Amino acid sequence: MKHLIDPTDLTKQETDQIIALGEDIIANREKYRDSLRYHKLATLFYEPSTRTRLSFTSAMMELGGNVLGFSDAKNTSVSKGETVEDTVRVVGNFVDVIAMRHPLEGAPYIASTVSKVPIINAGDGSHAHPTQTLTDLLTIKRELGHIDGITIGFCGDLKFGRTVHSLIKALSRYNGVKVILIAPDELRLPDYIKSDVCDKQGVDYREVHTIEEVMGELDVLYMTRVQQERFLDLEEFERVKDSFVLDSEKMALAKEKMAVLHPLPRVNEIKPEVDDDPRAAYFRQVENGKFVRMALMYSLLKWKDDPCHVMPEHPEYFEDATLVCRNPKCICNHENIKHLFHETESGVRCAYCDSKVK
Ligand code: NCD
Are both 81 and 52 inside the same structural domain? Predict the structure, then answer.
């Protein structure tokens, strides 16, 4: 069985297969209309969401299946103290697949270790957001015709933006992708992505401070919102919140064929005047999100008993009583679970949230 917790839980081949299936669904919607009839999806959303939850819901409905779940854990047994593991053990009896969003990093991973149905991570803290990644890859493919060889600028909150972390991981498996990181010092990409993903996979990347200096090079500009809810220091948020604003003047510096992506919601970082520019792809991206989630659920359910599609094992994870994960938003500091770590290029890290412990 396959879960999707991190984008690399899918092989590159499986990823491309899902993107191709997304394209086929777009071209032949009728063909898939009833393909998951009698199947059920649970959306367990412990954190706010509009697009992701509704797009999962709409995707399952369009495949002929049904959806149940919650969008606010306050009304569930979670408020009585139920663990993520127990909730998933219970819900797995009612549905065929579960999409989970959680503010604690590693929560969907823990869920996957006990679940009898596929778990899809719909966003865990600042850590990962693999279905947004599939959405982004499909959008790049549809807008530009290819993913290999693109130059992509990531702009805004590269520190807390989980969509950025997951997309860089996925893009590191394509050929000749160049990454330009556009962020203020306070919001730079976490070191573990630079060392353990970019350096390790030989991704050509550089860091700059303005959009203007690189705009003309980009095939894709990936704008992001500054993630207010993840800041521990609100003064710091106030200082950086309006660091980058995309407007028509900056768009005038861009190539004629390029695409502006944004996982949405936007706050101030893209002026509404950009919306009418044919290169503004962010609302098309939302629609792609539904198609790719149809492709994902269809594939995970089809692969369920296929030994060729299983989760990567992690024999490198180890326990060590002398190590502590200091991330207050890591699931290991909230539930009574084994503390696991792994050795990476850049030191020892928590297996659930990837924060550095040594
Ligand atoms: C993103 C998220 O939740 O991480 N939104 C989404 O899923 N489309 C981006 C964000 O909240 O800024």
Answer: yes
Residue 350 domain boundaries: 317-358
Mean residue pLDDT of the chain comes to 95
Q: Alpha helices, DSSP H only, in 97-161? A: 107-114, 130-144
- State the pLDDT at residue 221: 98
How far does CA 293 lie from the centroid of its chain? 12
Q: Is residue 193 part of a domain?
A: yes
- Residue whose entry in the numeric block shows the structure tokens 């203020």: 184
Model confidence at 80: pLDDT above 90: no
- From ligand 1's centre to the CA of 308, what distance in Å? 32
For residue 53, is it within any domain? Answer: yes
Q: Is 260 helix (H, G, I), strand (E, B) or coil?
A: strand
pLDDT, position 234: 86
Q: Whole-prediction pTM value?
A: 0.96
Measured from the Cα of 157, ligand 1's closest atom is: 12
Domain count, the chain: 3
Mutate to test the pocket of ligand 1, among 102, 160, 264, 285 (most ligand atoms within 8 A of CB): 264
21: domain CATH number?
Answer: 3.40.50.1370
Q: Whose CA is nearest to atom 6 of ligand 1?
A: 263
Distance in Å, CA 319 to ligand 1 centroid: 32
Q: Rounded CA gap, 341 and 358, in Å?
A: 10
pLDDT (tens digit, 9 = 90+) per residue, 340-354? 999 998 899 999 999
- Count CB neighbours of 46 within 10 A: 22
Q: Residues with Cβ within 6 A of ligand 1?
A: 51-52, 123, 129, 132, 162-163, 225, 227, 263-264
Average pLDDT over residues 80-95: 95
Q: What number is the average pLDDT over the span 267-280? A: 97
